Amino acid sequence: MRYVAVSALSHDGLVREHNEDSLVVGPWTLCAAVTPMPETFYFPLEHDPVLVAVADGLGGHPAGEHASSLVVTWLARAGVPADEASLREAIDVCNRTVYADATKDSARTGMATTLAGVVLDADSALAFNVGDSRVYLVENRGLRQVSVDDNPPLSPGQTHTSVLTQSIGGDPDHTRIEPHIVARELTESTRYLVCSDGLTDVVDDATIAAVLDAHDGGRAAFELWKAAIDAGGPDNITVALAEISDVSGSDERPDT
Questions:
Q1: What is the distance between the alpha carbons of residues 65 and 237, in angstroms, rounded to a whole number?
Q2: pLDDT less than 50: residues of the chain
Q3: In the prediction, which pLDDT does 248 show?
């Protein structure tokens, strides 16, 4: 039987007053809150797909934590989209839901969030994103970003920017989005890392790869968080590491 083990954490960092990141792993959600330690969840993939996603409420906009919470709560309740067309529709509904909710309270006008994640079934994965939260494929001891950053081109000397070319919500009136979606087959050694830019803005890909080469599961999630904290922790940090395992015997579960 094929399983996925998902190790996840979310933290407000060392500078921000509160956490605006939210997280969904299967039916479990963490809405703009903090985990004291990584949480690990196990799901069989033989029958139902599993969704893992991170939403990063936009700083500089009102109610970022509300926008991110709204999105992950809706995704957890709506059921996992099983194909690319359904996934695009689900992300579009998230966008429309954020805009509709913003009309109920003028203090939420312009609220916005990123969204990045992966839908996993027994044979394949659909990685997706809107904004600059990221999805990495970790396979054969290599790290590759499969999401697409919705940022304008960097100026000489820039390493990152907080400017987004699209997000879920964010404008005074409803604006359509074009999510990035990539489909891939799964193998027993496949791992996906989903994270907010609180990790990737301060920890480079080489360091992320080194951590994932040295650690698995909750220890890997913890060490990624620690690397961001050691780099100053200027933003909220959310990490979810999904690891595929094949286990013989339906009563067993994989080690992480």
A1: 13
A2: 249-252, 254-256
A3: 64
The CA distance from 210 to 113, in Å, is 29
Q: What is the DSSP string of the chain?
A: -EEEEEEEEEE-TTT-SS--EEEEETTEEEES---SS-EEEEEE-SSS-EEEEEEEBPTTSTTHHHHHHHHHHHHHHH----SHHHHHHHHHHHHHHHHHHHTT-GGGTT-EE-EEEEEE-SSEEEEEEESS-EEEEEETTEEEE-S----PPPPTT-S-----S--EE-SSS------EEEEEE--TT-EEEEE-HHHHTTS-HHHHHHHHHH--HHHHHHHHHHHHHHTT--S-EEEEEEEEEE-SSTT-----
> CA torsion sign, 244 to 209 to 234 to 153?
negative
pLDDT of the residue at 93? 98
- Longest CA–CA span in the chain (Å) reads 55
User: Is 255 a member of any domain?
Assistant: no
| Residue 253 domain-assigned (yes or no) | no
pLDDT at 129 (0 to 100) = 98
* Number of domains within the chain: 1
Residue 144 — φ and ψ, nearest 5°? -140, 130
The CATH number of residue 220's host domain is: 3.60.40.10
Residue 159 placed within a domain: yes
Whether 251 is covered by a domain: the verdict is: no
Structural domain span for residue 62:
2-246
